[in-house]
Amino acid sequence: MAWLTVYPDNDPTVVELSSSDRMVVSGHLAMAGLLFERWNAEKAIDDTADTAAVLAAYAGPIAALKRARGFQSADVVRVPRGMPEAGALRAKFLAEHTHEEDEARFFVEGSGAFYLHVGDRVLRVVCERGDLLSVPAGTKHWFDMGPDPHFTAIRFFTRPDGWVAAFTGDVIADHFPRYDGPR
């Protein structure tokens, strides 16, 4: 279940809200223009499952979201525990950036934290198995998969070239607490 923490963007030591209550999380994110849903993630994904197997396991919900939100494609990002290049991969997403399209992720297993810089607040959303978060185009954000990452997420795209980031150059992400992994 997702966990939402809200900070003022100029003071990461002040927690204005911290909750895992589904209604509080989804309502607060909706007020900020973000889509948050809980999907049934009951399909067990074998450690050796490839992209096609993960997409096939969730074909129905994937097709429904693509129709509803105009996504053209979906792929799978899988980061297993102990991945040798995990540190470099983590660093790639830790800088504030935006996208020209909505960024949607459904967590099939594991967890990670999205930090969303909305107005004068930073909303940290820790997503876990079953959580779907869609970040609108142009929203400043960064992602932290933690020091020992483990997750599988289905990513949705409207652009054929997939994930393309425009980095803001702001060092705000350096000042906020990092995600240490599941609670």
TrEMBL record:
Keywords attached to this entry: Amino-acid biosynthesis, Dioxygenase, Iron, Metal-binding, Methionine biosynthesis, Nickel, Oxidoreductase
Record carries keyword Signal: no
Required cofactor(s): Fe(2+); Ni(2+)
Superkingdom of origin: Bacteria
Amino acids binding Fe(2+): 97, 99, 103, 141
Cofactor binding notes: Binds 1 Fe(2+) cation per monomer. Binds 1 nickel ion per monomer.
Binding site for Ni(2+): 97, 99, 103, 141
Protein's UniProt keywords contain Oxidoreductase: yes
Site positions (May play a role in metal incorporation in vivo): 96
Reactions catalysed: 1,2-dihydroxy-5-(methylsulfanyl)pent-1-en-3-one + O2 = 4-methylsulfanyl-2-oxobutanoate + formate + 2 H(+); 1,2-dihydroxy-5-(methylsulfanyl)pent-1-en-3-one + O2 = 3-(methylsulfanyl)propanoate + CO + formate + 2 H(+)
Sites marked Important to generate the dianion: 105
Pathway stated in the Swiss-Prot or TrEMBL entry: Amino-acid biosynthesis; L-methionine biosynthesis via salvage pathway; L-methionine from S-methyl-5-thio-alpha-D-ribose 1-phosphate: step 5/6
Site keyed May play a role in transmitting local conformational changes: positions: 102
EC numbers on record: 1.13.11.54, 1.13.11.53
Class of enzymatic activity (EC top level): oxidoreductase
Molecular function in Gene Ontology: acireductone dioxygenase (Ni2+-requiring) activity; acireductone dioxygenase [iron(II)-requiring] activity
Function: Catalyzes 2 different reactions between oxygene and the acireductone 1,2-dihydroxy-3-keto-5-methylthiopentene (DHK-MTPene) depending upon the metal bound in the active site. Fe-containing acireductone dioxygenase (Fe-ARD) produces formate and 2-keto-4-methylthiobutyrate (KMTB), the alpha-ketoacid precursor of methionine in the methionine recycle pathway. Ni-containing acireductone dioxygenase (Ni-ARD) produces methylthiopropionate, carbon monoxide and formate, and does not lie on the methionine recycle pathway.
Assembly: Monomer.
Family matches, as HAMAP family: Salvage_MtnD (MF_01682)
Family, per entry: Belongs to the acireductone dioxygenase (ARD) family.
Record protein name field: Acireductone dioxygenase
Protein's organism: Azospirillum rugosum
